[in-house]
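Hi team,

As requested, here is the filled-out complex form for the nicotinamide-adenine-dinucleotide run. I kept the field names the same as last time so the parser does not choke. Let me know if anything looks off before we queue the next batch.

— J.
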Amino acid sequence: MNILVTGATGGIGKSICDLLAKNHNIFATGRNEELLKHYKNYLKADLSSFEEMKKLGNYIIENKIDILVNNAGGYIYSPIENVTPQQIEEIIKLNLEAPLYLISKAVPYMKSQKFGRIINIGSISGVLGEANASIYSASKSGLVGASKALALELAGYGITVNTINPGWVDTEMGNSSAEEGDFTKEELIECIPQKRFVTPLEIAGMVKYLISDEAKGVTGQSINLCAGLTCGY
Ligand code: NAD
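And here is what came back:
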């Protein structure tokens, strides 16, 4: 099957591509061309540019993508009164508008063949609040809402739509956002029931399950993969 993964050069994206490459054709996209050369099929596209996002939309159409993984994302940690309109636009564009646009380009082919899998990488910050990360939380909540609506809209076409919400993951973003916050990594780990960050491979494993035939009944779901962080305290 043809799988397109955004943010394919980052921690979680690369892990998804590497795990699925054994049995599928990977179409990778990201901003770093040097790292993208690791893949046979790739397109460099910066999703903050509308022109490049359109190019990626065409790439999706041309390559008959069966499975779309919207993984690219950005984070901002800032009290709301310090956030600039540009920062709001950037985060909403990358984390919410781009996934919706790419879905709109992937769906016609999926509908025509009565099969498709759409997986959005959200965050537990989209299902719980995260103080000083309201823009990020809002963008990730948007993915949860959109996934439910699309699951209903596309249920008759063999297309499933789900959001995976990682907790803290051991990647560049996970580690740098931990550094930006008010707590040390050790203090954060202390608050996680399993006392550890999730690994990128665990997220990749959930993607592998969601694209499998066994998961065809799983749609519209918001799956927290967070080492217990969302269970309470
Ligand atoms: P990462 O920083 O390793 O990777 C992020 C990827 O997004 C990179 O490939 C980067 O190039 C791409 N990206 C960023 N801005 C882009 C742009 N303008 N255009 C195109 N691509 C762009 O981070 P990661 O941890 O692998 O994050 C992957 C996803 O997981 C993100 O959506 C993130 O919000 C989500 N997530 C991560 C964590 C965590 O703790 N790491 C927790 C919850 C959710």
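Two things worth flagging: The beta strands are 2-6, 25-30, 41-44, 67-70, 116-121, 159-166, 222-225. Residues 85-113 form the longest helix (29 residues).

Thanks,
J.
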